[in-house]
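Thread: quick sanity check before group meeting

JM: Hey all, I'm pulling together slides for Thursday and realized we never actually wrote out the predicted structure for the chain we discussed last week. Dropping the sequence here so it's in one place. If anyone has concerns about the input, flag it before I start.
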Amino acid sequence: MGTDSRSPCLSPGTCLGVTVCERAVSPCLSADMALSLGWLPAVAAGLFSAHVLQRLCFPYFWRDLFFLLNVIRYGVKLELFKVRSSVVTVLDRFIQQAQTIPDKPFVIYGGSAHTYRDIERRSNRFANVFLDRLDLKKGDCVAVLMSNEPDFLCVWFGLAKLGCSVAFLNINIKSKSLLHCFNCCGAKTLIVGSDLVECLDGILSSLVEDNIQVWTMKSQSEDTQLHTLLDKVDAASDQPVPAQLRATTSLKSPTLYIFTSGTTGLPKAAVITHLQSLKAAAGFWVFGATKDDVMYIPLPLYHSAASLIGIGGTIELGATCVLKKKFSASQFWNDCRKHDVTVFQYIGELCRYLCNQPKTELDKVHKVRMGVGNGLRQDVWKEFNHRFGDIKMCEVYGSTEGNLCFMNHIGKIGTVGRSNFFYRLLFKYDLVKYDMIKDEPVKDQYGFCQRVEKGQTGLLLSKVSALSPFFGYAGSKQLTEKKLMRNVFVKGDAYFNTGDLMAEDQEGFICFRDRVGDTFRWKGENVATTEVSEILGLVDFIQEVNVYGVEIPGNEGRAGMAAVILRPGLTFNGKKLFEHMERDLPAYARPLFIRLQEVMEMTSTFKQQKFHLVQIGFNPSTISDPLYVLDYQEKSYVPLTHGIYQSIVTGERKL
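JM (edit): ok, ran it. Output follows.
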């Protein structure tokens, strides 16, 4: 009997041997597959159900997860610096990039490109001059008063290469405030831009008397009190100074002092450590920017948004930035098209200025895909996207000196950030009840603050801890302590008081409501100025609006008032405004007074200035701008005459 090279099928459903039994292949496999694959429908159904559940109940789960993983990944890198006792600073990162991509444009300014190598070598020249001619040493503080230009970066980096801390002075401050800034940070040297020397008029002698060296970015000067810098730089070596001069072992070492705007008092010098600089430098990266992006920076470098996030973020990625000396709404989109800008920075009302520009056929002709900043109001956000295309706007919430940051990585309109269970594990913050009348947090019977419910507005407090430290202000322990709240929920705890009223909805989105002090109380109700501003901004003849509260003798709280700029070619219509207010706002939130202005007063970071408007009030005798008052009998806003004013302050007119 002959043999078959194929193995025989010994029993139904069982195949032995290496080769396949052709006669029984179907029965053999079908039984096995039925047994082995019987679980697939159940698993598939389970996965499908889980997917549906996740989309319905946790729609942002994966985006939250990947975003948080990036945050943790960067945080781990910072923690490793502590373990190794060797910190790779933003400056170190720049030097690495200059070695890796020396010929790549780092800064484009005024149509000229400056490569990483260019800025590296020129900053070396400055460092050598600072070391040899100014006799600066590690730990010294140097004040810089300069406009946006490439040499701002070269001076900054040159000083940092010596281990000096740098105080960025606001170029808009004058005399008394400028002298105050030196006292804050202890600077004994000032470097001033060639275009800003006149800012020293009247105080130069005082600076010299205080033994402060003043160096100007010029090659020659007729004023003997001014030392020239550029002639020394041109003759200096571009070789690097010793690396140990800039080396640091602590993330908590101060590297910068950035001053607050001082809108209600003298500027405060916020201490910026290497830790804060490195965290800010990760901003673009966390939002998804890459080395191939071109960043547009129209904000002043003396503030943290442009210097820490803008320049620091560009360095971290090894990208290119377009630096503007000053923001120009008319040049913005032409610059973006010319330089293939993909990411831009904004703050405050900058985007509104762009929306107020005349419409053109080129409004959506650009490569901009993302904006990063803060202070974008919901009405402007919608108008901006409608007009200029689907640009992802990434709101970042956080103050220069604060220890908490929210980032709206989802891009949901009207929110400044997003939180969830995992975020709260890493960053401890709370929203607490706030009494608008007493202007203080509400306390329980034991003297502790009370948390608000989801969706309710409360004062944002951020816990001070090793993970979220608060470094405070230079030169004043009192100012630092003033920003802290202690014994908030338990004895001994400490929280940073942001001064911001916020709300967190059921999905975990964080919404900014108002600043404490901006929100006012009228007719027993709290009025959020941002909410009223958005409603007013929908009126067709209003281009820009700033809402605030003014005191009226004999009345509790503050009455609403709005400073308004009209759209070009349109006139004020009191009846139309009245109808709009009556339809869209409750009675207590309707502005009682309207002030027409030609120019809106702004801070240096494009934030509306309210303080002076509140102080001036609504007296037609002291205000030259046209004033209007809400008149329910006329169902209109009518001119505010001296007679009406007197009837209001004496209590004769019903409000």
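AS: nice. Residues 1-29 have pLDDT under 50 and may be disordered. The radius of gyration is 31 Å.
JM: adding both to the slides.
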